Amino acid sequence: MNEQKLMACQECDALQRIPHVDPGRKALCRECGSLLYRNPRGGMERPLALMSGAFLFYLLANLFPLVTLDIGGASRDTSLAGTGWALYQHDMKLLGILVLATTVMVPGTLIGGTLYVLTGLYWKKQLPGMRNVLLLLSHMHPWEMADVFVISVLVALVKMSGMAEVIVDVGLYALLAAIVLGIAARGGMDMFLMWELLERMQGKPRIADSAIDAGEAG
Amino acid sequence: MSLPRARELGVASCSVCLQVARVHDHQPVCCPRCGSRIHVRYPHSLSRTWALLVASMILYVPANLYPVMTNTYLGADSSSTILGGVALFLNEGDWLLAGIIFTASILVPLAKMMSLLYLLINVRRTFPSYRAHQHARLYRITELVGRWSMVDVFVIGILTALVQMGAISSVEPGIGAQAFAAVVVLTMLAAISFDPRLIWDRDMS
Region B161-188: what's the mean pLDDT? Predict the structure, then answer.
């Protein structure tokens, strides 16, 4: 494996060789300073552990109600999926689907899919469809809004606190834990590194960097 | 620029897995590693971004004019727009919440549309290279903050799910919420369609 990776910056297109990056350090583009590559400390072990935790808490967040509202003895609670579903039922079908997608389906797929790929990479075992799952994850990232949703729950709680008694339930704590663990796990991963590990594992022939060297002037 | 640019050397990096591969003009190339289509520059990046941005600006009007929700309290209806929601928090003296909603629902969408407009107008003009650095940073921030505009939409969803106590108190989502969510999605798509490498393609003075 060539230690000097050839990379073109995604933001400014500057072509450059990345020297060996020590664990826990990152390489920035020499032209525009954006992040090129990270070599997280602790390999796949740490993100795998954190993502497993995120997965369990995310399951709990979906099984238990998030908040309960109590007005004069009449109480009502909502789950994570209940928010999008409520919009859907109140004649806002498209909006409901958007909310369900960004708060339930995308975050769920991201956590589950990342855990799946990490599992395969950690035990160096080829799982079916790993490549396609990793592809899917790369495209989904901007549409993951569970963290925005938690802030929204807090805003809604304060808004309702004036007119009724609001009780924070297990689901909200679980969701918060899942988000924090998910962010920590993602901080210990690098997509480029994951693609590289996957490629090395599958042993796919790849275009040698040397084929490109011929054209590299500077 | 001191470093060679990938395009000048006939190579491009895959936008998904960052693999660098050789590309040929006017010929579609698939990434040898992940199989995604590799583009030297996103196809029709500027016209797509323009189209999505103009669509979001048009929808921004109904998003602010129509009520985002209607609250029935003891039989009396009251509808509120996005701006009305901020005013309500201010009247109750909730400065923090008014600030959050104002930032997420008014400041961020407006700033996002303005900065995309600015980038689109200026992307073909000649600038000193430090301006390219500024434009690149502006784009990075624009791409990062967009999703936080969804706060208001989610709040309306949560209230709709919880506050359903019949005549005592109930909340119905308004058509403005749908328009506002469309604005958020369209501006996000516009930011994704914009190819930041175009910022560095112009002549630097």
Answer: 92
Q: In this predicted complex, what is the ipTM?
A: 0.90
Contact between B92 and A162 using a beta-carbon 8 Å cutoff = yes
DSSP B84: H
Residue A149 lies in a domain: yes
| Domains contained in chain A, number | 1
Asked if residue A16 belongs to a domain, the reply is: no
Q: For residue B81, name the pLDDT band (cuts at 50, 70, 90).
A: very high
Task: Say how far apart CA A132 and CA A137 lie, in whole Å.
Answer: 9
A197 in any annotated domain: no
Question: Is B33 in contact with A206 (Cβ distance < 8 A)?
Answer: yes
Q: Which of A13, A103, A139 sits opposite B200 (nearest CB)?
A: A13
Question: For chain A, what is the mean pLDDT?
Answer: 88
Q: In this complex, do B20 and A160 lie within 8 Å of one another by their Cβ atoms?
A: no
Residue A89 domain boundaries: 43-187
> How far is the first Cα of chain B from the last one, in angstroms, to the nearest whole number?
11
SS (H, E, C) B6-75: HHHHCEEECCCCCCEEECCCCCCEECCCCCCEECCCCCCHHHHHHHHHHHHHHHHHHHHHCCCEEEEECC
Give the nearest chain B residue to A130 (CA atoms): B34
The CATH class given to the B44-200 domain equals mainly alpha
Does B30 contact A at CB distance below 8 Å? Answer: no
Is residue A5 included in any domain, yes or no?
no
Residues in B closer than 8 angstroms to A138, CB to CB, are: 16-17
Query: Does A160 lie at the interface with B, CB-CB under 8 angstroms?
Result: yes
CATH assignment at residue A119: 1.20.140
**Tens digits of residue pLDDT in A33-85:** 888 888 888 788 999 999 999 999 999 999 999 999 988 778 899 999 999 99
pLDDT tens profile A15-34: 999 888 888 889 999 988 88
Q: Which two tokens stand for residue B79?
A: 């509808």
Interface contact A121, partner B, CB < 8 A: no
